[in-house]
Amino acid sequence: MLTKRIIPCLDVKEGRVVKGKSFIALRDAGDPVELASFYYKEGADELVFLDIMATPEGRDTMVDIVERISEKVFIPLTVGGGLRSISDMRRMLLAGADKVSINTAAVFSPDLIRKSADKFGSQCVVVAIDAKRVDGSPESSSGQPKWEVYTHSGQKPSGLDALDWARRAVALGAGEVLLTSMDADGHRAGYDTQLTRTVSEVVSVPVIASGGAGTPEDLYQALVSGKADAVLAASIFHYGIYSIRETKEYLARRGIPIRPELNSG
Length: 265
Known about the structure:
By secondary structure, the protein is an alpha/beta fold. Helix content is 33%, strand content 26%.
């Protein structure tokens, strides 16, 4: 059985890690390089670095921070935010990223997914989907609500159905889907397992559940009920509510296949 991955997320604004609720009310959580190094030693399976203001501000991702993180950690690093072209992606990979995450650019230029998969391999291409439930939307025959894709760090609705977009992104070559529930994000009340499960059941690539972690039980539910392949969390790790070690121990006790901690040396 494939092991499940625990992935801390570093949302960075103005050189600092931040965290909010439903993509707003951001507060400081620390230095990205220090946190990345700490999580590596704690046993994180991977890291995600997202420059959350790069796209809204129309600038490039902070290469210097990516380079500094890659010098400190030796686990897969996914970098996103402000990546709009093959050259942007190449710059991040050369700076030390193992994968690149695209969201807004993929929505506006879907062929970028195909081009980047052809250039770097699907295993390097993560399509991030920020999804929000549509209030009052007619439910499908299966009783599921609809979710709309948002771009520009959750600031702009795209009109795209999240399920349809996930299918298309994978068909174009995405090797992984980073799926964030905007409704649950930062509230620490649990992931939107219905959203995660719905997407996981229709795509053939790994799905990373994001948004809503409050306890190790929430991660368990995302992996089991949500059928996620990995769980991304921020607040519970940044503010010391739970450690990666105790989270992994909890999941292992519940029967989740977890990678052994090899990073503490």
